[in-house]
Amino acid sequence: GAVVSQHPSWVICKSGTSVKIECRSLDFQATTMFWYRQFPKQSLMLMATSNEGSKATYEQGVEKDKFLINHASLTLSTLTVTSAHPEDSSFYICSASVPGLLGEQFFGPGTRLTVL
Amino acid sequence: KQEVTQIPAALSVPEGENLVLNCSFTDSAIYNLQWFRQDPGKGLTSLLLIQSSQREQTSGRLNASLDKSSGRSTLYIAASQPGDSATYLCAVEGGNQFYFGTGTSLTVIP
């Protein structure tokens, strides 16, 4: 099956710094990638939809200037958490959508971000 | 390694029927189980979250149950509507990782 990787798997950073998370589709081209986050004891929630070569579409309540998404190629999307704060500590997971009618999504293993 | 299976893979029902979607998992050591809805080309929409200490959750016409000991969860949809047509995914969280099921594609016929 299609494989999606994320890097890093976990990261600890100081408050005020920026962190970049990469999401790669390893054996297929993904025209669309999705970014999700999950706070402790809460549901996984969609943050944004990223289409290759165009600006990402953010869900309500997600700050686009804080969570920068770049989908520069059909196999790579990046999420940069700018000026991170402790409340940004969360589990971030991406998925890549296979082109086609069903739009099946394949999920990365996730990145655990802890902001001190 | 955790494995999550959903049955059936596809389901077609007439409008108004009640239906049950099934999710099974092999490792009962989970933090929680979540049910999602996926529409074509869209991101997942969270429907229900059941913590490992809970047995069920309800939201409107949706009811999800969790039996950790048997590794099963069901999503019950009452009085189905054409707008419920979508793919439904379950996912378990454990070991700092998510494990997604393969999904059930639901079609509700007007």
Tell me the fraction of residues in β-strands of chain B, as a range.
over 45%
Q: Level of helix content of chain A?
A: under 10%
What composes the largest sheet of chain A? 7 strands, mixed
Write down the secondary-structure element order of chain A.
EEEEEEEEEEE
Concise description?
The complex is a heterodimer of chains A (116) and B (110). Chain A is built from no helices and eleven strands.
SSE diagram, text form:
The complex is a heterodimer of chains A (116) and B (110).
Chain A: E1 4-7, E2 10-13, E3 19-25, E4 32-38, E5 45-51, E6 57-58, E7 67-73, E8 76-81, E9 90-97, E10 105-107, E11 111-115
Parallel strand pairs in A: 2-11
Antiparallel strand pairs in A: 1-3, 3-8, 4-5, 4-9, 5-6, 7-8, 9-10, 9-11
Chain B: E1 4-7, E2 10-14, E3 19-25, E4 32-38, E5 44-51, E6 56-59, E7 62-67, E8 72-77, E9 86-94, E10 97-100, E11 104-109
Parallel strand pairs in B: 2-11
Antiparallel strand pairs in B: 1-3, 3-8, 4-5, 4-9, 6-7, 7-8, 9-10, 9-11
Can you offer a commentary on this structure?
The complex is a heterodimer of chains A (about 120) and B (about 110). Chain A is mainly beta and about 120 residues long. Chain A is built from no helices and eleven strands. In chain A, strands 2, 4, 5, 6, 9, 10 and 11 form a seven-stranded mixed sheet that branches. Chain A is globular. By secondary structure, chain B is an all-beta fold. In chain B, about 0% of the residues lie in helices and about 60% in strands. In chain B, strands 2, 4, 5, 9, 10 and 11 form a six-stranded mixed sheet that branches. In chain B, strands 1-3-8-7-6 form a five-stranded antiparallel sheet, with no helix packed on it. Chain B starts with a strand and ends with a strand. Chains A and B meet through β4, β5 and β9 of A and β4, β5, β9 and β10 of B.
